[in-house]
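Re-run with default settings, no changes from the original entry. Doing this only to confirm the output is reproducible before filing.
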Amino acid sequence: MKRTRTTAAVIAAIGLVTALTACSSGSTAGDTASGGTPVSGGTLNYAIDAQPTAGGVDPMVATALAAQTIMDQSYETLLTKNDDGDIEPGLATKYDEVDDTTYDLTLRKGVKFSDGSDFTAEDVVYTFETYQKSTTSKRAYLSKLTSVTAKGDHEVEFTLSAADSTFLNGLSNRETFMVVSSDGYADASADDREKQTYGTGPFAVTDWKDGVSITLTKNKYYWGSKKPYLDEIVFQIIPDDSTRLAAVQQGSVQAAWFSDGTVADQAVSAGWTQGKTYDTQGLPIFINPESGPLSDVRVRRAVSLALDRDALVDTAMFGNGKVSYVTPAGDPSSPEVTKDTPYYTQNIKKAKALLKEAGQTSPTIELSYFGDAAASQHPIYELMQQQLAKAGITLKLESKSTSELAPIFTAGQSFTDMVSLPWSFRADPTFYFDPFLSEAGAENHWDGNADADKAKELLAAAKSETDPDAKAKLIQQLDDEVASQVLVLVPMSVPQHFEVWDSAKLQGYTTDPYGSRVALKDAWLEQ
Protein backbone atom coordinates (compact mmCIF):
# COMPACT_ATOMS: atom_id res chain seq x y z
CA MET A 1 0.00 0.00 0.00
CA LYS A 2 1.41 3.38 -0.99
CA ARG A 3 1.73 5.98 1.74
CA THR A 4 3.88 9.01 2.26
CA ARG A 5 3.00 9.86 5.83
CA THR A 6 1.19 7.96 8.54
CA THR A 7 0.64 8.28 12.25
CA ALA A 8 0.69 5.35 14.65
CA ALA A 9 -2.43 6.18 16.63
CA VAL A 10 -4.91 3.71 18.02
CA ILE A 11 -8.54 3.34 17.03
CA ALA A 12 -11.16 5.18 18.90
CA ALA A 13 -14.41 4.13 20.28
CA ILE A 14 -16.13 6.96 21.91
CA GLY A 15 -18.00 6.44 25.18
CA LEU A 16 -17.66 5.04 28.63
CA VAL A 17 -16.85 1.37 29.06
CA THR A 18 -16.48 -0.83 32.10
CA ALA A 19 -13.04 -1.53 33.51
CA LEU A 20 -11.78 -4.92 34.62
CA THR A 21 -11.11 -6.36 38.01
CA ALA A 22 -8.48 -9.02 37.75
CA CYS A 23 -5.86 -10.64 35.60
CA SER A 24 -6.78 -14.07 34.33
CA SER A 25 -4.60 -16.85 35.66
CA GLY A 26 -5.58 -19.30 32.95
CA SER A 27 -4.10 -19.90 29.53
CA THR A 28 -4.49 -17.25 26.87
CA ALA A 29 -4.63 -17.32 23.12
CA GLY A 30 -1.99 -14.65 22.77
CA ASP A 31 -1.41 -13.42 19.25
CA THR A 32 -1.81 -16.68 17.35
CA ALA A 33 -5.12 -18.02 16.06
CA SER A 34 -6.03 -21.67 16.22
CA GLY A 35 -4.58 -23.92 13.55
CA GLY A 36 -6.43 -26.29 11.29
CA THR A 37 -8.20 -26.03 7.98
CA PRO A 38 -11.10 -23.55 7.85
CA VAL A 39 -14.52 -24.96 7.17
CA SER A 40 -17.64 -23.06 6.16
CA GLY A 41 -21.02 -23.09 7.85
CA GLY A 42 -22.54 -23.00 11.29
CA THR A 43 -23.93 -20.46 13.74
CA LEU A 44 -21.72 -18.87 16.39
CA ASN A 45 -23.51 -17.97 19.61
CA TYR A 46 -21.66 -15.14 21.32
CA ALA A 47 -22.74 -13.76 24.72
CA ILE A 48 -22.50 -9.98 25.14
CA ASP A 49 -23.41 -7.64 27.97
CA ALA A 50 -25.56 -5.02 26.26
CA GLN A 51 -27.40 -4.20 23.06
CA PRO A 52 -26.84 -0.90 21.24
CA THR A 53 -29.07 1.85 22.59
CA ALA A 54 -29.11 5.42 21.24
CA GLY A 55 -28.86 5.23 17.47
CA GLY A 56 -28.83 1.45 17.36
CA VAL A 57 -26.36 0.40 14.63
CA ASP A 58 -26.66 3.56 12.57
CA PRO A 59 -23.02 4.58 12.01
CA MET A 60 -24.03 8.22 11.55
CA VAL A 61 -25.46 8.31 15.06
CA ALA A 62 -24.18 5.49 17.26
CA THR A 63 -20.81 5.73 19.02
CA ALA A 64 -21.13 3.53 22.12
CA LEU A 65 -19.05 0.35 22.42
CA ALA A 66 -22.12 -1.91 22.28
CA ALA A 67 -22.95 -0.49 18.85
CA GLN A 68 -19.40 -0.36 17.52
CA THR A 69 -18.71 -4.05 18.02
CA ILE A 70 -21.83 -4.94 16.03
CA MET A 71 -21.25 -2.37 13.29
CA ASP A 72 -17.66 -3.61 12.87
CA GLN A 73 -19.06 -6.83 11.43
CA SER A 74 -21.30 -5.08 8.89
CA TYR A 75 -19.52 -1.90 7.87
CA GLU A 76 -15.99 -1.19 6.67
CA THR A 77 -13.74 1.84 6.47
CA LEU A 78 -11.55 3.17 3.67
CA LEU A 79 -8.37 2.43 5.63
CA THR A 80 -7.65 0.35 8.72
CA LYS A 81 -4.87 -0.15 11.28
CA ASN A 82 -3.04 -3.22 12.43
CA ASP A 83 -2.31 -4.04 16.07
CA ASP A 84 0.79 -1.82 15.99
CA GLY A 85 -1.17 1.19 14.80
CA ASP A 86 0.18 1.10 11.24
CA ILE A 87 -2.22 2.10 8.47
CA GLU A 88 -3.30 -0.68 6.11
CA PRO A 89 -5.71 -1.03 3.17
CA GLY A 90 -9.45 -1.27 3.68
CA LEU A 91 -12.00 -0.35 1.07
CA ALA A 92 -9.18 1.72 -0.39
CA THR A 93 -6.15 -0.16 -1.69
CA LYS A 94 -3.82 2.83 -1.38
CA TYR A 95 -3.69 6.50 -0.52
CA ASP A 96 -1.47 9.33 -1.74
CA GLU A 97 -0.81 12.30 0.50
CA VAL A 98 -0.45 14.82 -2.32
CA ASP A 99 0.34 17.60 0.14
CA ASP A 100 -0.61 18.53 3.70
CA THR A 101 -4.20 19.28 2.69
CA THR A 102 -4.93 16.83 -0.15
CA TYR A 103 -5.40 13.05 -0.03
CA ASP A 104 -6.15 10.85 -3.05
CA LEU A 105 -7.49 7.34 -2.37
CA THR A 106 -7.76 4.48 -4.85
CA LEU A 107 -10.79 2.30 -4.12
CA ARG A 108 -10.95 -1.47 -4.19
CA LYS A 109 -12.69 -2.89 -7.26
CA GLY A 110 -15.25 -5.68 -7.24
CA VAL A 111 -16.71 -4.76 -3.82
CA LYS A 112 -20.46 -4.99 -3.26
CA PHE A 113 -22.77 -3.98 -0.46
CA SER A 114 -24.74 -6.69 1.34
CA ASP A 115 -27.73 -6.01 -0.94
CA GLY A 116 -25.60 -6.83 -4.00
CA SER A 117 -25.17 -3.25 -5.27
CA ASP A 118 -21.72 -2.04 -6.37
CA PHE A 119 -19.45 0.02 -4.13
CA THR A 120 -18.16 3.12 -5.95
CA ALA A 121 -16.67 6.52 -5.28
CA GLU A 122 -20.16 8.01 -5.14
CA ASP A 123 -20.85 5.98 -2.01
CA VAL A 124 -17.75 7.49 -0.39
CA VAL A 125 -18.83 11.02 -1.31
CA TYR A 126 -22.33 10.38 0.05
CA THR A 127 -20.95 8.84 3.23
CA PHE A 128 -18.67 11.72 4.15
CA GLU A 129 -21.12 14.43 3.17
CA THR A 130 -23.66 12.71 5.42
CA TYR A 131 -21.18 12.55 8.31
CA GLN A 132 -20.56 16.27 7.88
CA LYS A 133 -24.28 16.96 8.26
CA SER A 134 -24.72 14.58 11.20
CA THR A 135 -24.62 15.39 14.90
CA THR A 136 -22.24 12.58 15.82
CA SER A 137 -19.03 13.29 17.71
CA LYS A 138 -17.18 11.74 14.76
CA ARG A 139 -17.52 15.10 13.01
CA ALA A 140 -14.59 16.34 15.08
CA TYR A 141 -12.26 14.55 12.66
CA LEU A 142 -13.82 16.40 9.72
CA SER A 143 -13.50 19.95 11.06
CA LYS A 144 -11.08 20.91 8.29
CA LEU A 145 -12.60 18.84 5.47
CA THR A 146 -13.74 21.20 2.72
CA SER A 147 -14.63 18.70 0.00
CA VAL A 148 -14.65 15.05 -1.03
CA THR A 149 -14.75 14.50 -4.78
CA ALA A 150 -15.22 11.41 -6.96
CA LYS A 151 -12.54 11.16 -9.64
CA GLY A 152 -14.04 8.30 -11.58
CA ASP A 153 -15.67 5.21 -10.08
CA HIS A 154 -12.67 4.12 -8.03
CA GLU A 155 -10.83 7.22 -6.90
CA VAL A 156 -11.75 9.95 -4.42
CA GLU A 157 -10.00 13.13 -3.37
CA PHE A 158 -10.27 14.70 0.08
CA THR A 159 -9.36 18.37 0.43
CA LEU A 160 -8.74 20.07 3.78
CA SER A 161 -8.64 23.75 4.65
CA ALA A 162 -5.41 23.32 6.64
CA ALA A 163 -2.99 20.60 7.71
CA ASP A 164 -4.68 18.26 10.18
CA SER A 165 -2.88 15.19 11.50
CA THR A 166 -6.09 13.84 13.05
CA PHE A 167 -7.80 13.38 9.66
CA LEU A 168 -5.82 10.38 8.44
CA ASN A 169 -6.14 8.69 11.81
CA GLY A 170 -9.89 9.22 11.73
CA LEU A 171 -10.00 7.85 8.19
CA SER A 172 -8.19 4.66 9.24
CA ASN A 173 -10.09 4.14 12.48
CA ARG A 174 -12.26 1.06 12.13
CA GLU A 175 -14.92 2.63 14.37
CA THR A 176 -15.16 6.09 12.86
CA PHE A 177 -16.07 6.59 9.20
CA MET A 178 -17.91 3.43 8.19
CA VAL A 179 -18.94 3.58 4.55
CA VAL A 180 -22.66 3.25 3.81
CA SER A 181 -24.58 2.59 0.62
CA SER A 182 -25.76 5.73 -1.15
CA ASP A 183 -28.81 3.74 -2.24
CA GLY A 184 -29.78 1.40 0.58
CA TYR A 185 -28.88 3.66 3.50
CA ALA A 186 -30.17 6.80 1.82
CA ASP A 187 -33.57 5.23 1.15
CA ALA A 188 -33.94 3.67 4.61
CA SER A 189 -35.96 5.19 7.45
CA ALA A 190 -34.30 6.27 10.69
CA ASP A 191 -35.82 3.22 12.44
CA ASP A 192 -34.53 0.84 9.77
CA ARG A 193 -31.02 2.29 10.00
CA GLU A 194 -30.97 1.56 13.72
CA LYS A 195 -31.73 -2.15 13.34
CA GLN A 196 -30.48 -3.01 9.84
CA THR A 197 -27.14 -2.48 8.15
CA TYR A 198 -26.16 -1.17 4.71
CA GLY A 199 -22.46 -1.89 4.45
CA THR A 200 -19.84 -3.94 2.65
CA GLY A 201 -18.76 -5.93 5.73
CA PRO A 202 -18.66 -9.74 6.04
CA PHE A 203 -22.00 -9.87 7.89
CA ALA A 204 -25.30 -7.99 7.83
CA VAL A 205 -27.75 -7.50 10.71
CA THR A 206 -30.85 -9.48 9.76
CA ASP A 207 -32.78 -9.92 13.01
CA TRP A 208 -33.14 -7.86 16.19
CA LYS A 209 -34.97 -9.05 19.29
CA ASP A 210 -34.89 -6.29 21.89
CA GLY A 211 -33.08 -7.36 25.02
CA VAL A 212 -32.66 -10.91 23.72
CA SER A 213 -30.41 -11.20 20.66
CA ILE A 214 -29.04 -9.62 17.49
CA THR A 215 -28.47 -11.91 14.51
CA LEU A 216 -25.95 -11.26 11.76
CA THR A 217 -26.00 -13.28 8.55
CA LYS A 218 -23.13 -13.93 6.14
CA ASN A 219 -22.83 -11.36 3.36
CA LYS A 220 -22.77 -13.62 0.29
CA TYR A 221 -21.32 -10.75 -1.75
CA TYR A 222 -18.37 -10.13 0.57
CA TRP A 223 -15.17 -9.36 -1.36
CA GLY A 224 -12.85 -11.27 1.01
CA SER A 225 -11.78 -14.56 -0.56
CA LYS A 226 -13.91 -17.43 0.82
CA LYS A 227 -14.75 -15.35 3.90
CA PRO A 228 -16.57 -15.21 6.16
CA TYR A 229 -16.73 -18.89 7.04
CA LEU A 230 -19.57 -18.59 9.55
CA ASP A 231 -23.15 -18.58 8.25
CA GLU A 232 -24.47 -16.64 11.21
CA ILE A 233 -23.47 -14.91 14.43
CA VAL A 234 -26.10 -14.62 17.13
CA PHE A 235 -25.11 -12.10 19.79
CA GLN A 236 -27.04 -13.15 22.87
CA ILE A 237 -27.68 -10.24 25.22
CA ILE A 238 -26.96 -11.27 28.81
CA PRO A 239 -26.27 -8.20 31.00
CA ASP A 240 -25.04 -9.98 34.13
CA ASP A 241 -21.51 -11.43 34.14
CA SER A 242 -22.43 -14.40 36.31
CA THR A 243 -25.42 -15.29 34.13
CA ARG A 244 -23.19 -15.02 31.08
CA LEU A 245 -20.73 -17.38 32.77
CA ALA A 246 -23.56 -19.87 33.32
CA ALA A 247 -24.24 -19.81 29.57
CA VAL A 248 -20.56 -20.57 29.02
CA GLN A 249 -20.59 -23.45 31.49
CA GLN A 250 -23.77 -24.89 30.01
CA GLY A 251 -22.34 -24.73 26.50
CA SER A 252 -25.19 -22.65 25.09
CA VAL A 253 -22.66 -20.15 23.72
CA GLN A 254 -19.24 -20.66 22.14
CA ALA A 255 -17.81 -17.21 22.97
CA ALA A 256 -18.37 -14.42 25.47
CA TRP A 257 -16.81 -11.32 26.90
CA PHE A 258 -16.71 -10.17 30.49
CA SER A 259 -16.12 -6.95 32.36
CA ASP A 260 -14.94 -8.85 35.45
CA GLY A 261 -11.65 -10.70 35.08
CA THR A 262 -12.37 -13.05 37.98
CA VAL A 263 -15.43 -14.30 36.11
CA ALA A 264 -13.35 -14.79 32.98
CA ASP A 265 -10.93 -16.80 35.13
CA GLN A 266 -13.70 -19.27 35.83
CA ALA A 267 -14.31 -19.72 32.12
CA VAL A 268 -10.60 -20.36 31.61
CA SER A 269 -10.65 -22.87 34.48
CA ALA A 270 -13.39 -24.69 32.59
CA GLY A 271 -11.04 -25.07 29.62
CA TRP A 272 -11.94 -22.01 27.59
CA THR A 273 -9.36 -19.79 25.90
CA GLN A 274 -8.90 -16.18 26.94
CA GLY A 275 -7.78 -13.75 24.26
CA LYS A 276 -4.95 -11.31 24.67
CA THR A 277 -5.94 -8.17 26.58
CA TYR A 278 -4.82 -4.60 25.87
CA ASP A 279 -4.61 -1.71 28.36
CA THR A 280 -6.52 0.70 26.14
CA GLN A 281 -9.11 2.01 28.59
CA GLY A 282 -7.95 5.17 30.31
CA LEU A 283 -8.98 6.01 33.88
CA PRO A 284 -8.43 9.78 33.98
CA ILE A 285 -9.45 11.71 37.07
CA PHE A 286 -10.40 15.20 35.93
CA ILE A 287 -9.59 18.22 38.08
CA ASN A 288 -11.49 21.43 38.73
CA PRO A 289 -8.84 24.01 39.71
CA GLU A 290 -11.23 26.96 39.89
CA SER A 291 -11.48 26.81 43.68
CA GLY A 292 -10.38 24.70 46.63
CA PRO A 293 -7.01 23.06 47.37
CA LEU A 294 -6.39 21.93 43.78
CA SER A 295 -6.24 25.49 42.49
CA ASP A 296 -2.62 25.41 43.73
CA VAL A 297 -0.28 23.38 41.51
CA ARG A 298 1.80 22.48 44.58
CA VAL A 299 -1.16 20.66 46.11
CA ARG A 300 -1.88 18.87 42.82
CA ARG A 301 1.74 17.77 42.61
CA ALA A 302 1.62 16.58 46.22
CA VAL A 303 -1.42 14.42 45.38
CA SER A 304 0.40 12.89 42.41
CA LEU A 305 3.56 12.27 44.45
CA ALA A 306 1.57 10.57 47.22
CA LEU A 307 0.33 7.89 44.85
CA ASP A 308 2.10 4.55 44.51
CA ARG A 309 0.81 3.74 41.04
CA ASP A 310 2.51 0.35 40.85
CA ALA A 311 0.71 -0.67 44.04
CA LEU A 312 -2.59 0.56 42.60
CA VAL A 313 -2.08 -1.71 39.59
CA ASP A 314 -0.82 -4.72 41.55
CA THR A 315 -3.13 -4.53 44.57
CA ALA A 316 -6.31 -2.71 43.55
CA MET A 317 -6.46 -4.27 40.07
CA PHE A 318 -4.64 -7.55 40.75
CA GLY A 319 -1.93 -6.65 38.24
CA ASN A 320 -4.46 -6.07 35.50
CA GLY A 321 -3.43 -2.69 34.15
CA LYS A 322 -0.43 -0.49 33.57
CA VAL A 323 0.87 2.83 34.85
CA SER A 324 -0.15 5.30 32.20
CA TYR A 325 -0.10 8.82 30.87
CA VAL A 326 -3.29 10.52 29.67
CA THR A 327 -2.85 8.50 26.48
CA PRO A 328 -3.60 4.94 27.66
CA ALA A 329 -0.59 2.63 27.88
CA GLY A 330 -2.17 0.17 25.43
CA ASP A 331 -2.46 2.80 22.71
CA PRO A 332 0.39 2.32 20.20
CA SER A 333 0.88 6.10 20.18
CA SER A 334 1.35 6.36 23.95
CA PRO A 335 4.79 7.30 25.34
CA GLU A 336 6.30 4.99 27.95
CA VAL A 337 6.06 6.14 31.56
CA THR A 338 9.56 6.14 33.11
CA LYS A 339 11.26 7.10 36.36
CA ASP A 340 11.71 10.56 34.86
CA THR A 341 7.98 11.15 34.28
CA PRO A 342 7.16 14.27 36.32
CA TYR A 343 5.62 13.61 39.76
CA TYR A 344 4.87 9.94 39.04
CA THR A 345 7.31 8.29 41.46
CA GLN A 346 5.92 8.15 44.99
CA ASN A 347 7.71 10.51 47.36
CA ILE A 348 5.76 11.17 50.58
CA LYS A 349 8.48 13.44 52.02
CA LYS A 350 8.42 15.71 48.97
CA ALA A 351 4.60 15.67 48.92
CA LYS A 352 4.49 16.90 52.52
CA ALA A 353 7.05 19.60 51.73
CA LEU A 354 4.94 20.88 48.84
CA LEU A 355 1.83 20.97 51.02
CA LYS A 356 3.71 22.90 53.69
CA GLU A 357 4.98 25.34 51.08
CA ALA A 358 1.41 25.83 49.87
CA GLY A 359 0.20 26.43 53.44
CA GLN A 360 -2.12 23.40 53.24
CA THR A 361 -0.61 20.62 55.33
CA SER A 362 -3.86 18.67 55.69
CA PRO A 363 -6.20 19.45 52.79
CA THR A 364 -9.48 17.64 52.15
CA ILE A 365 -10.17 16.77 48.52
CA GLU A 366 -13.39 15.33 47.11
CA LEU A 367 -13.36 12.59 44.45
CA SER A 368 -16.61 11.58 42.75
CA TYR A 369 -16.91 8.31 40.86
CA PHE A 370 -19.48 5.97 39.35
CA GLY A 371 -21.01 4.02 42.22
CA ASP A 372 -23.51 2.09 40.11
CA ALA A 373 -21.12 1.11 37.30
CA ALA A 374 -17.47 0.16 36.78
CA ALA A 375 -17.45 -1.49 40.20
CA SER A 376 -14.07 -3.03 39.47
CA GLN A 377 -12.52 0.43 39.74
CA HIS A 378 -13.74 1.12 43.27
CA PRO A 379 -10.72 -0.54 44.96
CA ILE A 380 -8.50 1.96 43.11
CA TYR A 381 -10.12 4.90 44.85
CA GLU A 382 -10.10 3.20 48.22
CA LEU A 383 -6.39 2.44 47.98
CA MET A 384 -5.73 5.98 46.76
CA GLN A 385 -7.46 7.22 49.89
CA GLN A 386 -5.05 5.21 52.04
CA GLN A 387 -2.00 6.36 50.10
CA LEU A 388 -2.90 10.06 50.22
CA ALA A 389 -3.51 9.85 53.97
CA LYS A 390 0.20 9.12 54.43
CA ALA A 391 0.94 12.62 53.12
CA GLY A 392 -1.74 14.23 55.29
CA ILE A 393 -4.31 14.49 52.49
CA THR A 394 -7.90 13.47 53.23
CA LEU A 395 -9.57 12.02 50.14
CA LYS A 396 -13.33 12.24 50.51
CA LEU A 397 -14.91 9.58 48.28
CA GLU A 398 -18.31 10.35 46.80
CA SER A 399 -20.05 7.41 45.13
CA LYS A 400 -22.60 8.76 42.66
CA SER A 401 -25.02 7.37 40.13
CA THR A 402 -24.48 7.56 36.39
CA SER A 403 -27.40 9.97 36.09
CA GLU A 404 -25.72 12.32 38.57
CA LEU A 405 -22.36 12.28 36.78
CA ALA A 406 -23.61 12.20 33.18
CA PRO A 407 -24.09 16.00 32.91
CA ILE A 408 -20.38 16.47 33.67
CA PHE A 409 -19.20 14.63 30.55
CA THR A 410 -22.17 15.46 28.32
CA ALA A 411 -22.86 19.10 29.15
CA GLY A 412 -19.76 20.29 30.98
CA GLN A 413 -21.46 20.64 34.37
CA SER A 414 -19.09 21.74 37.11
CA PHE A 415 -17.88 19.39 39.84
CA THR A 416 -16.06 19.65 43.15
CA ASP A 417 -12.29 18.98 43.13
CA MET A 418 -12.03 15.71 41.14
CA VAL A 419 -14.20 13.31 39.17
CA SER A 420 -13.28 9.95 37.65
CA LEU A 421 -14.68 9.51 34.13
CA PRO A 422 -13.23 6.42 32.40
CA TRP A 423 -12.86 6.64 28.65
CA SER A 424 -12.11 4.34 25.77
CA PHE A 425 -9.39 4.69 23.14
CA ARG A 426 -9.43 7.47 20.55
CA ALA A 427 -8.54 7.39 16.87
CA ASP A 428 -5.95 10.13 17.33
CA PRO A 429 -3.85 10.69 20.48
CA THR A 430 -4.64 14.41 20.56
CA PHE A 431 -8.30 13.59 21.20
CA TYR A 432 -7.46 12.30 24.69
CA PHE A 433 -6.58 15.89 25.61
CA ASP A 434 -9.53 17.70 24.04
CA PRO A 435 -12.01 17.08 26.91
CA PHE A 436 -9.95 19.13 29.36
CA LEU A 437 -7.85 21.42 27.14
CA SER A 438 -9.99 22.40 24.16
CA GLU A 439 -12.32 25.36 24.43
CA ALA A 440 -15.40 23.19 23.94
CA GLY A 441 -14.14 20.36 26.14
CA ALA A 442 -16.76 19.15 28.62
CA GLU A 443 -14.17 18.75 31.40
CA ASN A 444 -12.27 21.94 30.60
CA HIS A 445 -11.97 24.12 33.70
CA TRP A 446 -8.59 25.54 32.72
CA ASP A 447 -9.68 28.55 30.67
CA GLY A 448 -7.71 31.56 31.82
CA ASN A 449 -5.44 29.41 33.98
CA ALA A 450 -1.79 29.91 33.04
CA ASP A 451 -0.90 26.44 34.33
CA ALA A 452 -2.47 24.98 31.18
CA ASP A 453 -1.11 27.46 28.62
CA LYS A 454 1.90 25.42 27.50
CA ALA A 455 -0.18 22.24 27.24
CA LYS A 456 -2.69 24.03 25.02
CA GLU A 457 0.09 25.24 22.74
CA LEU A 458 1.53 21.72 22.46
CA LEU A 459 -1.92 20.29 21.70
CA ALA A 460 -2.48 22.76 18.86
CA ALA A 461 0.96 21.99 17.44
CA ALA A 462 0.38 18.22 17.61
CA LYS A 463 -2.93 18.51 15.74
CA SER A 464 -1.35 20.34 12.84
CA GLU A 465 1.88 18.30 12.68
CA THR A 466 1.52 15.69 9.93
CA ASP A 467 5.04 14.23 10.20
CA PRO A 468 4.59 11.14 12.42
CA ASP A 469 7.96 11.35 14.17
CA ALA A 470 7.57 15.04 14.95
CA LYS A 471 4.03 14.43 16.17
CA ALA A 472 5.18 11.60 18.45
CA LYS A 473 7.67 13.97 20.10
CA LEU A 474 4.93 16.54 20.63
CA ILE A 475 2.67 13.91 22.24
CA GLN A 476 5.54 12.98 24.58
CA GLN A 477 6.00 16.63 25.53
CA LEU A 478 2.27 17.08 25.95
CA ASP A 479 1.89 14.05 28.21
CA ASP A 480 4.86 15.19 30.30
CA GLU A 481 3.48 18.73 30.58
CA VAL A 482 0.09 17.46 31.73
CA ALA A 483 1.86 15.26 34.28
CA SER A 484 4.06 18.14 35.47
CA GLN A 485 1.16 20.55 35.98
CA VAL A 486 -1.15 17.69 37.09
CA LEU A 487 -3.93 18.96 34.83
CA VAL A 488 -5.40 15.45 35.05
CA LEU A 489 -4.57 12.71 37.55
CA VAL A 490 -4.07 9.30 35.93
CA PRO A 491 -3.66 6.28 38.21
CA MET A 492 -3.42 3.71 35.36
CA SER A 493 -5.04 2.30 32.24
CA VAL A 494 -6.74 -1.10 32.03
CA PRO A 495 -8.15 -3.51 29.44
CA GLN A 496 -11.70 -2.94 28.28
CA HIS A 497 -12.99 -6.50 28.51
CA PHE A 498 -11.92 -10.09 28.81
CA GLU A 499 -12.88 -12.11 25.76
CA VAL A 500 -13.12 -15.90 26.02
CA TRP A 501 -14.15 -18.73 23.70
CA ASP A 502 -14.33 -22.48 23.44
CA SER A 503 -11.31 -23.14 21.23
CA ALA A 504 -12.39 -26.75 20.70
CA LYS A 505 -15.30 -25.32 18.73
CA LEU A 506 -14.38 -21.80 17.62
CA GLN A 507 -11.21 -21.78 15.54
CA GLY A 508 -9.11 -19.11 13.85
CA TYR A 509 -10.18 -16.28 16.14
CA THR A 510 -7.98 -13.67 17.88
CA THR A 511 -8.66 -10.51 19.83
CA ASP A 512 -7.51 -7.08 18.69
CA PRO A 513 -6.45 -3.93 20.61
CA TYR A 514 -9.59 -2.09 19.58
CA GLY A 515 -12.18 -4.57 20.84
CA SER A 516 -13.79 -4.66 17.39
CA ARG A 517 -14.05 -8.46 17.07
CA VAL A 518 -13.12 -7.90 13.44
CA ALA A 519 -11.41 -11.30 13.31
CA LEU A 520 -14.80 -13.02 13.43
CA LYS A 521 -14.67 -12.92 9.64
CA ASP A 522 -11.61 -15.21 9.85
CA ALA A 523 -13.11 -17.63 12.38
CA TRP A 524 -14.87 -20.93 11.82
CA LEU A 525 -16.64 -23.62 13.81
CA GLU A 526 -15.53 -27.22 14.01
CA GLN A 527 -18.38 -29.19 12.51
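The longest strand covers residues 92-99. Residues 1-32 have pLDDT under 50 and may be disordered.
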